[in-house]
Amino acid sequence: MLTNRTPRSEYEHRWTRAQALAKAQGVEALVVWGKGGGPVDTANDLIYLANYSPVFPYCPDLSGNWSGLSHAAVIIPVTGEPVLITDTAVVRTDVIAVQDVRPAAGFVPDMVVQTLQKMGLGQARIGLVAGPWLVAGIYRRLLEVGRDLEFVDLDKAIESLRTHKSAFEFELLRESAEVGNRAMEAMMKAAAIPGNTEADAVAAAYDVAIRRGAAMIDAACASGPHTAFYAYGMAPQWTTRPLAAGDIFHCDMYGAATEGYTWDFSRSVVTGGRWTREQKEVYDGAIAAIEAGVAACRPGITAAGLYTTVLDVLTARDIFCGYPLHGHSYGIGWESPWLVPSNETRIEAGMAIAIECMAGREDVGFVKFEHNVLVHEHHTELLSTCPARV
Q: What is the model's pLDDT at position 148?
């Protein structure tokens, strides 16, 4: 849950870093967008800068009535205080970090431009941090009403700041992981009982997490004959399929429990608890691969190096890799660096990294396993301490 627990000094430090980034990019302000509706990963930059997430789910623009409903934007000028533009006048001022909050009366792009004009930036070069949240219709209106502005694409600007975390953020990630550990263990125990469904397993996890104030984002499940799928259900990502003794069940579960900060764990279960020799070989291989990645996750190694570390263990055990990445940074949502073959970004102290794999053999089935770690100068701290098996 978003509360007023994060000290203002944290936000001031973030604003200062954002202003320095804007200056380095030669823009006079950043306009940072986000979308609400519940999952914090669609509002991650807004939460990071303002501790705000819009309350409405996505609503298409309705000509003459609204534009940008369910969206909000933070304006960060290179000098001065930030301004938050909201889609509604009824907001939690006791929680929001930004003091200057301006409701848009239904037209968020218009209010953004009007605010820039009042700040003396009506014809300025503006860094636009839209991410995947600024849909085409709203973007077109922004360009129309802001025709005198020069927008510069800086989509990854705030994400680049979020990748390097403070000691306070590390503490929030630890607390969120504690909820994730309990939720994942509850899911595993439910999935181990023959006759329970995938949905029963997810419900057991969600019951634990939601009662602790978590915003659940996803539980990507597959089981039985469908384990080659990352998620067989699609929407939702689980099904009501009953689990039979001997079925592999796997889940990649993702949620936020503390001030928008997330966990991202994967585990696998054999329903009934009796692993065949072949199933055990596959899961042992996945665990060994991720543990090798955790051991190698130190300042200086590249994202590609971590990817290769995990892949080499799977290859040596003749286990097929189920998808072409082995993790990513995480915090308020997923972030770069992504652990893929071509990424030479170096891991640094202050990063939080999720290291994962989906692996298997066609004649046996596929499993998932994932750890979350905090990277310190001289060691790596493991957060995903829920058991590998139940």
A: 97
Tell me: the pLDDT tens digits for 248-263? 999 999 999 999 999 9
The pLDDT of residue 2:
93
Q: Which of 109, 96, 13 is nearest to 54 (CA)?
A: 96
Q: How confident is the model at residue 325 (pLDDT cuts 50, 70, 90)?
A: very high
- Cα 343 vs. chain centroid, distance in angstroms? 19
Q: How far is CA 252 from CA 220, 222, 231, 334, 355, in A?
A: 5, 10, 9, 13, 12
Q: What is the largest CA-CA distance in the chain?
A: 70
> What domains sit in the chain, N to C, each tagged with a CATH number?
8-162 (3.40.350.10), 167-382 (3.90.230.10)
Round to whole Å and give the CA distance between 122 and 78. Answer: 15
In the predicted structure, residue 129 carries a pLDDT above the cut 90 = yes
| Residue 300, Cβ density class (10 Å: 0-12 exposed, 13-18 middle, ≥19 buried) | exposed
72-98, pLDDT tens digit by residue? 999 999 999 999 999 999 999 999 999
Q: What pTM, to 2 d.p., does this model score? A: 0.96
- Please give the order of strands across the beta sheet that includes 150-153: 100-103, 83-86, 71-77, 29-35, 125-129, 150-153
pLDDT in tens, 151-188: 999 999 999 999 999 999 999 999 999 999 999 999 99
CA distance 386 to 390: 10
Q: How many CB atoms lie within 10 A of CB 244?
A: 12
